[in-house]
Amino acid sequence: MNQVDVNIRVDSFPKDSAEAEVLANVVAERLQIGRLIKTDKYIEALERTISALQQLKDFPDHDNEEFRALIVALVFDLVEIHFTLKDYKRSEKELEALFKILDPLLSRNPERFGRLHILALELSTRILRSKKKTIDMLARQQLHADALSEKVNAGILSATERLVDSLCNVGRLLASSGDYREAMKFYSEAIRISKKRAGRVNKKEIRLTVEMAEIMIRVKSMRPRAERLLDAVLPHAISLGETELQHDIETLKAMIKLQESMKVSWLSAFRRK
Question: What is the model's pTM?
Answer without folding.
Answer: 0.67
